[in-house]
Structures are given as C-alpha cells and as structure tokens.
Automatic annotation (TrEMBL):
Coiled-coil portions: none
Lineage per the UniProt record: Bacteria, Bacillati, Bacillota, Clostridia, Halanaerobiales
Domain Cas12f1-like TNB: start-end pairs: 299-362
Keyword Ribosomal protein appears in the UniProt entry: no
InterPro entries in the record: Cas12f1-like_TNB, RNA-guided_DNA_endo/Transpos, Transposase
A Pfam family hit: OrfB_IS605
Domain Probable transposase IS891/IS1136/IS1341, residue spans: 157-280
Protein known as: Transposase, IS605 OrfB family
Keyword vocabulary terms for this entry: DNA recombination, DNA-binding, Transposition
Stretches that traverse the bilayer: none
Domain of life the protein comes from: Bacteria
Similarity-based family: In the N-terminal section; belongs to the transposase 2 family.
GO MF annotation terms: DNA binding
Amino acid sequence: MNKTYILPINQQELAKQLSRQSGRIYSKVVSTIFKLKQNKNIWLSKNGMEKLIKLYASEFRLHSQTKQGIVQQYYNNLKSFFNAKENQENAKPPYKTRKYNKVIYKRSAIKLKDNGVLRLSNGRKGKAIKVKAPSLTKKPKYAELIYHHNEDKYKLHITVEVKNKKIDYDNDKVLAIDLGQKHPMVTYNNQTKESIIYNGGRLNSFIRFRNKELAKLQEKMSRCQKYSNRWKKLNRAKKKLLSKSKNKIMDVLKKYASHLISFCLKREISTIVIGDLKGIREKINFGTKDNQKMHQWLFGQLIDIIKYQAKAIGIKVKFIDESYTSQTCPQCGYQHKPSDRNFDCPNCNVSFHRDFVGAFNIYKKYTRGSLDKSSRLEGVLTSSYGVKYDSNSISCLTNWNTSPFGQGIPA
Ligand SMILES: [Zn+2]
C-alpha cells in the first residue's frame, strides 16, 4: 500500500527557484506541442519531447529524472485529453503554460541518509533539498515539491510503500479515550494499564488566537456598510483567518490521531472506546456560542480521523455515554466533583490525577457496564506520559510502528 505524507521544508527560496525552472520546462513542452501541431499537424511523441527538453534544459539545476518527470506530467494530461475527446466534443488539450510548476523526484534522485536526513538531488550542479525525517524507516519511492497556497509555503509530498502489521483482533485489549478541553485526549488501556495525555496547549492557543482575531474582524465589519470595498476586504481577511486556523488545528488532530493509532497497533489494541459528543457538551463550559461550535467541530473531526484510521487497519471503534465518568471514584464508585488537578476520594481516600479518572471510567463503563462499587479494581495505572504537538514533526506516520514524536512510544 502506498501512503503519502507531507513534510515541511526549510529551503523555501531554493524550492521557489526549482519550481520556476520546472514551470519553464512545462511551458516549453506546451509551446512546442502546439507549434508542431499548428505547423506540421503532428503530436510530438513523448520520447521526442524528452530529447528536446534534455537539450533545452541542459543548464537547469534539476535532476535529469525531474526533467523527464515534467514531460511525463504533461503527457499524462494530454492522455486524459485524448480519452476525454472520445465523449466530449469540446475537450481541449492542456494548453496553459505555467510560471511555476511542481518539482518531481523519482527514486534515483532520493536518498535517505543514516542520520535521518532525506536528500533530494537537483543534479550535479544544483543544490539538494534536505529534510529531517527521523521517523522515516524506508526511502520514499516518489516525491514532489508542491506549493501550498493557503500557507504560502512549499512542502514536500512523499510517497512511501507501507506494509501493515497484521493483528489478531479477536482479543479483549481495549483503549478508552476521554475527550476534553484542557487535553484533547487522555487515554487508558487495559493491556499495559498506561495512560497517555495529549497536550492541548498549542491547540488551545491556536483556538484562542482564532477567536480573538475573528471577534476583532467581526467588530470592524459590523461598523461598515455591507458589501462595501472595506467590508469585502475584511471578509476576505476573515475567510483567510478561518481557513488558516482550520489547517493548523487539523494538523494537530491528525498528528495526535496517528500517534494514537500507532500506539494501538504496538499494543495490539482491538477496540477503541470513546465517550460520546453529547457528554462533552455537558462536561465542559465553552463560554461563547462560537467557541462551543468550534470545539464541537474539533471533536467531531478528531473522532472522524480516529474512526477512519482505525477502520483502515481493522480496529473497532465504540461509543458510550460518558455521564459521570469524570466524577466517580475509579476504586469505590463514590461520586465526587474534583476541585483541583487531583481526584481525592473522600470515601476511600484514594488519589488519582483528575485527567486519568475520566479515561479509566470510560474503560470501566464499557467493559463492566457500570461505574458501580461492585467493580473491583486491579492495579489500575502503571504509568502515564504526555505527548506534545510539534509542528515540525512529520505530518503523518510513515510506518505504523514509529512515532512522529521525538521520544516515540515507550517500548
Ligand atoms: Zn473512592
């Protein structure tokens, strides 16, 4: 199975130069095709075009396979035109030239060094693109440097062949997730009795920034005539803010979900249990209506990503009513609203970290049907550790068994 991952790169100026050269080659292909079609009524073959481009771009600082890749790119578009022409009279051959174009790297131009640096060659004369990718265990078979409009940045898209680990899913290993505002996820699993706390610091600061800027823009917009030039300008700024924030938040959610799924694989978890969204609404005070909508959207997305990734590898995802899960003593079942970071049970004197209590009780409710006293507790928690978002780490997992985070998953 092929998987594509997106990596941030530092060499933005170099990427722009490469993309400009790629655009020149692509445009040369387009103009040559049309000149020959017009003057001699022939479609130049791909082979002929490759030879021509080799000469044309001999001084370009691009890998020879990259140059060929751009020719290939055009001929793929041309092929779709010939296919479309059979049913569509007004189909047009790809005629648009491009100032900038993606930069294509084939296998022979890609190297994964021992120090975890991915090196993309731009020929003997060109400077290479280098990206740190410590969690890559295998060299990508294909890569593309692509411009992301919304972030005004070039990013590297890599394609890796991934072998999925086979799990015997007929087991009773369960991982419970407590969704929350301070920490988007706290998990507990009955296999190793560990708890993972996904840090919500960056996520919440993205949301606070978004809410603050949005309120400012809306306030300004309310003071000017609707559809006036100024209003339109502010509206554009608003749309940009919303899409940028959305991307940032989705990046956190995707990385956290990937980390979670790879953890489940490593622990051979067969079932993930999540408290339902209704419970979250009751549990958390979100303040403004907009902020509440924002969080509902966020948790909805997070659940969707987890469901999607879990399904892809055969892990079941179940939902349960999470009422009282954060207010019940894991040991004796006594109901008590914790007032600080700890859950100190006034009935049996046991003390737990408050965040862990929710996750454990979701697990307990799922496996035993209730939070009753009758449920006896065996060696509840062995260890807990935190996972923190890092915008520079690999966007997605390259291998289910490795972690996108520096420290990785404990063995
Ligand atoms: Zn108790």
